[in-house]
Amino acid sequence: MVTRNINNFNLLRLVAAYSVLYYHSFFLYLNAGKCVTFGDVSLGALAVYVFFSISGFLIFKSWIADPNVFRYLCRRLLRILPALFIVVVLSLVVLGPLVGTLSVVDYYKDAETWTYLKNVLLYPVYHLPGVFASNHYPSAVNGSLWSLPVEFFMYLILILIGVVFRQKLKWGLVFALCIFVFAYFFSVDTSGVFIFYGVDLKQIAPNGIFFIIGAIIAAFKLEKSLTLPGSFFILALLMFTSHGVLFQVLTWIAIPYLSLAFALQSSWLSVKIKDMGDYSYGVYIYAFPVQQTTVYFFPGLPFFSHVIIDILITTFLAVVSWHFIEKNALKYKPLSNHPL
């Protein structure tokens, strides 16, 4: 096990962010083929589950270190909103007129243009009028933003558990897990889409389960039990149950276990990544519009040429976002004894 300051969290988040980029490539590019899956879990879903598992673990530790609702929310909002505000405004002001079918005047007159700003309030809006209308995956500006309100909802759930259960947080988390598991199986058997605040409510349970299990690992201090032999055992179980209910239940255990078992170790690369900064959020929120833009201007590029170009451009924007926006915003976090 390692010290809290030298670990693989930044590295794993970065790998997950690039995995989402790669997964989206199979939908956004022409003649991309079929993306790799792991049983019933797609690469994109796996990456998001890793994000939620890590988030549940770390955010719970942050709450325990300073269970003050105001300071807790300030820290979470300062991590999410500044960079999100920039990518939303750049998409609206720069990207929209550049790659849209409307004239600049008509674009800015269109009321739909300005509804895109709802994204700053974590209300997902995916379209700008006329933008990417002729792309292979038409009209979607930033398909990655759906997960942000789900993530923030889990932050609020953690507050609720913390306030209601207080000294019995562990069992509050277990109770919440039971509710989310019930909601998951209920939603699987329910047809239709249920939208609230721009979010498909069916997305909350399958992602929230990983957040809660990550928090449970932290609450019960189970990270000390995350071993390499245990990782191999869990992988072996997954190999023999690649589909169905048993596989789904095993992923709830396996993904948080494997993610945190790796994240809590250190390596020479983790030290280098930590010294550079946490670029994963920037990669996550910039990748989709970058991919759509390269498809717009270079629709005939080979698949892997697209991927490489998009990784380079997205990484550049993520680096700029971290050093000029995100890192500076985090300086305003309320003081506490916890580094998150």
Automatic annotation (TrEMBL):
Keywords: Membrane, Transmembrane, Transmembrane helix. InterPro entries: Acyl_transf_3_dom (IPR002656), Acyltransferase_3 (IPR050879). It comes from Hydromonas duriensis. This is Peptidoglycan/LPS O-acetylase OafA/YrhL. The lineage of its organism: Bacteria, Pseudomonadati, Pseudomonadota, Betaproteobacteria, Burkholderiales. PANTHER family: ACETYLTRANSFERASE. Residues 7-321 form the Acyltransferase domain. The keyword Endoplasmic reticulum does not apply. GO terms for molecular function: acyltransferase activity, transferring groups other than amino-acyl groups. It comes from the Bacteria. The chain crosses the membrane at residues 12-30, 42-60, 80-99, 145-165, 172-197, 203-220, 232-255, 303-325.
